[in-house]
Write a structure and sequence with these properties.
There is one protein chain. Helix 8 packs across helix 9 and helix 10 packs across helix 12. The protein has one domain: Aldolase class I (TIM Barrel), CATH 3.20.20.70. The two termini are 37 Å apart. It is of the alpha/beta class. Strand 7, helix 6 and strand 8 form a beta-alpha-beta unit. Helix content is 40%, strand content 15%.
């Protein structure tokens, strides 16, 4: 009942007001509010009372980590790890902070965030804004977290990291700082930010081979993922998968934003206000899901897949899970639908699992692929 109340009020009252303001200002405001709510046990409890939802059928253990539900906050929202205390109370099962870079980064000039309301999408051109690895590890090192915390790693958005060796060193700086401090339950190598100096250098296979080779020299004590761009040709995707196998990567996040903002695949319902940035949200969903299914088809159960892109409902999340995702992440859906969305998705997943006769979410992972190969 509370979820329906919040859903109605967000959609018809609060969102129309918020969408009158600059999207980055709204994001900054809610970050401050969320950080404040997270400081008090009372406000965390009240938030959980209003928004939280738990059910044993959603719990699973993946790569040694316990997830109370499969819905996580994607990297790019909590850039400076200010919301780690409140997000479990909102209902999230995990979070990925950052992306975090070797040096502090102010990001690209404003404006750098635009809404596409008809397309239920965003254009994002932040440029990896964050406080940097050394500041953020100090902030996080003495905290205990109520859910698995992922650390998204990228190279600093600066001309100084465009050269391949310097870029690799920047990635490794972040990784080593957090590993040494024992902060982070898993790590994601973000090779796919479309908004930084030098483009996407590590989608080049030779450069990616060098990057992953350097990561492999460091003893791996935590799961390691690669965050993928959605615009890869199938041949290059297959080659990246081979590199991931070579260097014992644990999984993929499918996917980051798309630069193909005017492409026919996106079918935007309104003109783009800018040529900058990458597109997220419902417009991205078909591309992201296509890649998710391709990786599952090519690799079977070799990798853990995290779906990201265009998740606005329990049905969206369930479709990604049946396509092969063990976990899902969102940001844009939260902005367009409101904070009660996380509980709605988890409640809806329980109903969908029950309808299909599953006792646990893990039973539904990849069932579409299993049907294709005759295992179901």
């Amino acid at each position: 009942m509370l979820a329906k109340f919040f859903h109605f009020n967000y959609r018809y009252i609060l969102k129309p007001i918020l969408f009158c303001f600059d999207p980055e200002q709204v994001h900054d405001f809610f970050t401050v509010v969320g950080e404040s709510l997270g400081r008090s046990a009372l406000t965390r409890w009240l938030t959980s009372l209003f928004f939280g939802y738990q059910h044993p059928s959603l719990e699973q253990s993946i790569l040694g980590l316990k997830f109370t539900n499969p819905v996580g906050l994607a990297a790019g929202f909590d850039k400076d790890a200010r919301l780690t205390a409140i997000l479990p109370a909102v209902g999230f099962g995990f979070e990925e902070v950052g992306s975090i870079t070797g040096e502090a980064c102010q990001g690209n000039p404003r404006p750098r965030l635009w809404r596409l309301p008809k397309s239920q999408s965003l254009i994002v051109h932040y440029g990896l804004k964050n406080a940097g690895a050394e500041v953020l590890v100090q902030k996080l090192r003495d905290h205990r977290f109520a859910y698995p915390l992922g650390i998204s790693i990228a190279k600093t958005n600066s001309p100084a990291t465009v050269e391949v060796t310097a870029g690799i060193a920047d990635y490794l700086k972040v990784y080593k700082i957090f590993l040494t401090a024992g902060v982070g339950d898993y790590f994601t190598i973000n090779i796919s930010c479309p908004n930084a100096y030098g483009g996407l250098p590590f989608t080049d296979l030779a450069r990616l081979d060098l990057l992953l080779g350097e990561f492999a020299k460091i003893p791996k004590t935590k799961p390691l993922f690669i965050k993928m761009p959605p615009d890869l040709e199938e041949e290059k995707l297959a080659a990246i998968i081979l590199l991931a196998e070579k260097y014992k990567i644990d999984g993929f996040v499918c996917t980051n934003l798309t630069k193909d903002g005017n492409g026919a695949n996106l079918q935007l319902k309104e003109p783009r206000p800018t040529d900058k940035g990458g597109v997220s949200g419902k417009a991205l969903a078909p591309l992201a899901e296509k890649q998710l299914r391709l990786i599952r088809q090519k690799t079977g159960n070799k990798f853990i897949l995290i779906a990201c892109g265009g998740i606005f409902s329990a049905e969206d999340a369930y479709r990604k899970i049946k396509a092969g995702a063990s976990l899902v992440q969102l940001v844009t859906g939260l902005i367009f639908e409101g904070p009660q969305l996380i509980g709605e998705i988890n409640r809806g997943l329980v109903k969908l699992l029950t309808q299909d006769g599953y006792q646990n979410i893990s039973e539904a992972i990849g069932v579409d692929y299993k049907k294709e190969i005759g295992q179901v």
